[in-house]
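Translate structure to sequence.
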């Protein structure tokens, strides 16, 4: 279901701001400055098919006696006409429209990607569009998620970033997992940032650096935390 101009305007009103707003082949567990602008504003980003975005990233790690820091550098090919803005859209599966509104989902996604703790802090940029774009973030039923993620085996449980979709399993969106130790909002931040990390950066999975530390956003937190603390942000 496409995002309508009205729903985007409602979402941005919820957030209280109007700003100038690849395919990874890895699912969560088997899955910027964000600039948004009013839906009526002209599109300035050249569209590119998902297959043209390289699934690569450069990672450097420095370690001290107390902590290690990993920094991911965005591929230079993300610069489109000199601006690292990537168009994306948001959808709710038709079968789920009675459980939550598209405007609420749009608002949450934009709020997440607009936060300095998200990929915005690493130099990425996104622009929300009504329909299409480089990828579409969708909360879908387990069955449809499996279809969108195929041939990845999401098994009715997991989410993925593939084929022009950031497909989030609705069971996870609405209830996280039985073992999730934190609030649902944190899980939702995590799954958005995690899957976009796969899709845009080709970022691989991380592991828990040490007991009691925050889990890296690219850790498969749906599968467990390994002693780490649940975390939804790229740079918390």
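Result:
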């Amino acid at each position: 279901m496409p995002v309508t101009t009205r729903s985007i305007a409602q979402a941005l009103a919820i957030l209280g701001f109007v700003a100038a707003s690849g395919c990874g082949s890895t699912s969560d567990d088997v899955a910027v400055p964000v600039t948004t602008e009013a839906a009526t504003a002209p599109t300035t980003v050249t569209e590119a098919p998902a297959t043209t975005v390289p699934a690569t990233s450069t990672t450097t790690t420095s370690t001290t006696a107390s902590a290690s820091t990993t920094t991911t550098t965005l591929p230079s090919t993300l610069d489109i006409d000199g601006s690292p803005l990537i168009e994306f859209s948001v959808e709710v599966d038709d079968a789920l429209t009675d459980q939550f509104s598209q405007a609420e989902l749009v608002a949450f996604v934009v709020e997440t990607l607009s936060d300095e703790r998200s990929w915005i802090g690493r130099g990425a940029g996104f622009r929300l569009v009504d329909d299409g774009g480089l990828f579409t973030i969708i909360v879908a039923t387990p069955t449809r998620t499996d279809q969108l993620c195929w041939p990845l085996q999401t098994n009715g449980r997991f989410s993925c970033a593939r084929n022009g979709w950031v497909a989030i399993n609705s069971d996870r969106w609405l209830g996280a997992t039985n073992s999730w130790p934190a609030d649902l909002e944190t899980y939702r931040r995590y799954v958005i940032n995690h899957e976009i990390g796969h899709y845009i950066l080709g970022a691989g999975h991380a592991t828990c650096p040490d007991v009691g530390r925050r889990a890296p956003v690219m850790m498969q937190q749906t599968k467990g935390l390994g002693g780490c603390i649940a975390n939804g942000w790229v740079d918390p």
